[in-house]
Design brief:
By secondary structure, the protein is mainly alpha-helical. It has 17 helices and five strands. α16 links the parallel β1 and β2.
């Protein structure tokens, strides 16, 4: 999975190069802006789906651009193909791009984008690719398999505890602070000459990240990693905007310095925690009950799933937990249950202080 994350970022870089029309300087500047985001770069070595999701999103956007300029129908189908892959990877988070594209198309009267967005065959392809997987999940595991998705990922995070409205704007600023400050210093020049010198495609980048950030700000629980798939659009827009305000030599020099500092910071943090992380992961690999029937109670652990190499249900209710237990299942939980002795006590490899307990029938 680490290799998948690394390769995804390499391919994202290549797509940015293509979006910048193979202009090496503009591509380097956009990539420096993107990879000087500490949060974004930190995912390059992580066992996580975010980098793959980002890759599918940026590829689908690339095909939208290709259709916009060529009107070749194959690019519509390629857009929906990778849009579906993104959905299968991470769910509907990237659907916030649809109103962004629609809003842009209406303002700039872009009939080509409207044609792509309202392509019946494209959406049919999307449905054909996505729905069989969910139908399979329903018949294989039952309705409870969707509980995590609908209750936790959508309903709970929409209406539960309210993080401040500005949280996502704050995260965006912190991740791109040097570049945003440069932009703000000369914002008067931008409104004087840069505003009208930006291309339509540059404004499409702007809508592609700003509209989703605005819409996501109305949700309850906020997680800054939900913005990661928008960061390539931020980098593309900022590179185009800053080139109208500063010299190429200055921007390239600054980008090089910031990238090296960011890379060194992540490397040192990673190196300092590597031994402890390796110990925790080895402990998990050696002790996971791979041959037993197991479930998660209330929440899952992706690393456990990776090493168990099988699908494990996530149970939310006590009654369901007891039903599975009576049928011989063991269960993982982060809660220490009074009166019970865990068969295993495992540290969470990525969250210090978090403990996973494993109970099986013989311990009751």
């Amino acid at each position: 999975m680490r290799l998948v994350s690394f390769l995804s970022y390499i391919l994202v870089s290549f797509i940015i190069y293509k979006l910048q029309k193979k202009d090496l300087f503009k591509s380097l500047l956009a990539l420096f802006i993107l990879f000087t985001s500490f949060r974004f770069l930190s995912f390059i070595y992580r066992i996580d789906l975010e980098p793959l999701f980002i890759f599918f999103v940026i590829v689908s956007f690339y095909f939208l651009i290709q259709f916009r300029y060529t009107l070749k129908v194959k690019y519509i189908y390629l857009f929906y193909l990778f849009f579906a892959f993104a959905f299968l990877t991470r769910g509907p988070l990237h659907f916030f791009l649809i109103p962004s594209f629609l809003f842009y198309a209406l303002i700039f009267r872009d009939k080509n984008i409207l044609k792509l967005l309202f392509c019946f065959r494209g959406w049919l392809l999307f449905i054909i690719l996505v729905f069989p997987w969910y139908i399979f999940g329903y018949f294989k595991f039952g309705l409870h398999i969707f509980h995590e998705f609908f209750y936790t990922d959508i309903l709970k995070r929409l209406v539960n505890k309210k993080d401040p409205f500005y949280s996502y704007f704050e995260a965006l600023f912190l991740n791109f602070a040097p570049w945003i400050l440069l932009f703000l210093i000369r914002i008067h020049l931008f409104f004087k000459k840069g505003l009208f010198s930006l291309s339509d495609q540059s404004w499409l980048y702007f809508f592609a990240f700003s509209f989703p950030v605005f819409l996501l700000s109305f949700t309850g629980e906020k997680f800054d990693k939900y913005l990661l798939y928008l960061y390539p659009f931020v980098a593309l827009f900022m590179s185009d905007a800053l080139l109208n305000l500063y010299s190429k030599k200055f921007l390239l020099g600054l980008g090089t310095i910031l990238f090296i500092l960011n890379f060194l910071a992540i490397f040192l943090i990673r190196f300092s925690s590597l031994e402890d992380l390796k110990y925790r992961i080895d402990l998990i690999k050696a002790n996971l009950p791979k041959k037993e029937k197991v479930i998660f109670y209330k929440q899952e652990n992706p690393l456990f799933l990776f090493y168990l190499k099988k699908t494990v249900p996530v149970i939310k209710k006590e009654k369901e937990l007891l039903k599975y237990y009576r049928n011989g299942y063991g269960f993982f939980t982060t809660e220490e249950r009074k009166g019970l002795i865990p068969s295993l006590v495992l540290p969470d490899p990525y969250k210090k202080g978090k403990i996973w307990y494993y109970y099986k029938k013989s311990t009751f």
